[in-house]
Amino acid sequence: MAKEKIILTGDRPTGRLHIGHYVGSLRRRVELQNSGLYDKTFVFIADAQALTDNMENPEKVRQNVIEVALDYLACGLDPAKSTIFIQSQIPELCELTFYYMDLVTVSRLQRNPTVKTEIQMRNFETSIPVGFFTYPISQAADITAFRATTVPVGEDQEPMIEQAREIVRRFNFIYGDTLVEPEILLPDNAACLRLPGTDGKAKMSKSLGNCIYLSDTADEVQKKVKSMYTDPNHLRVQDPGKIEGNTVFTYLDAFCRPEHFERYLPDYPSLEELKAHYQRGGLGDMKVKGFLNNIMQETLEPIRNRRKEFEKDIPAIYEMLRKGCETARETAAATLDDVRRAMKINYFDDAELIAEQVKKFSAE
Ligand code: TRP
């Protein structure tokens, strides 16, 4: 049998999802889910990982589990096609993590660039929680428990996937071929790799207050687009403007399609022409922002409307998640059976072991 093609990815429930999540991974996942090219899709809410740096804030994590689930459904993830579940409800993941810890050194974890930056951002330098420090190992468990072949994530997750691949190789080398080595799937467009915040800062993040959320109202979206960071030296319309580092143009790179010009800006044949005009001078920020606003409204409106529909039956969302957890547990448990067998800790389902011991002790 050809190897199954399996997608797995997840998000920490520390807030509602924003358009950075959308272009970085969410939009792609929905396409993959609907492509028919994959045998299974798993998408999960990484609440246990969120607790590794929000241990004092369990209520925040709890509240955001449902927010993220609503954002998933609103974007088109479909429980009939994807298993949507909550990380903490799959105890098998803890067991796998515990075994993988034997395969990773402290210095290897210290070299993980994402963990390094996060430690700085959270001022953890002198008091890093062990659970936080080791979350790349638990992330390897998330991925391998479901035999994922393909992990669609943003650029910041690259070190995590690399670390998971190392764990798989080491496990298979020591214990025999058991685990599947995953591949990362990054966005193909540079603007989507790391969408900047509306203030032009490198990352869209709730703590910086520079996010456009998938669930923002039309007014909120418009206000945020109108106050976006552009080229601070582009003071008068006739001045030449810069495209590099100009957030409005980065967003256009991420969201604009040819048909948007036909609909909202028929004077221009393409984004290249719009950029060229801006660089020459004679094109005002407000006109470009108006265009971007039209595109954002068109993109976000159906998402917002679907979310409103799903919000009408919250118990059904929890029930969907509960079922997803059940399916996910079955899959993870099957992998764990293989892992225990490979690691020789399957004492009670191995008749040969008992026979072998009988022989050993009767020979003495
Ligand atoms: N670390 C990811 C994030 O911060 C969430 C995550 C946890 C994840 N486990 C995963 C993503 C496994 C992909 C695969 O968004």
From TrEMBL:
This is Tryptophan--tRNA ligase. GO terms for biological process: tryptophanyl-tRNA aminoacylation. It comes from the Bacteria. GO terms for cellular component: cytosol. GO terms for molecular function: ATP binding; tryptophan-tRNA ligase activity. It catalyses: tRNA(Trp) + L-tryptophan + ATP = L-tryptophyl-tRNA(Trp) + AMP + diphosphate + H(+). Its EC number is 6.1.1.2. CDD domains: TrpRS_core. It is an enzyme of class 6 (ligase). InterPro entries: aa-tRNA-synth_I_CS, aa-tRNA-synth_Ic, Rossmann-like_a/b/a_fold, Trp-tRNA-ligase, Trp-tRNA_synthetase.
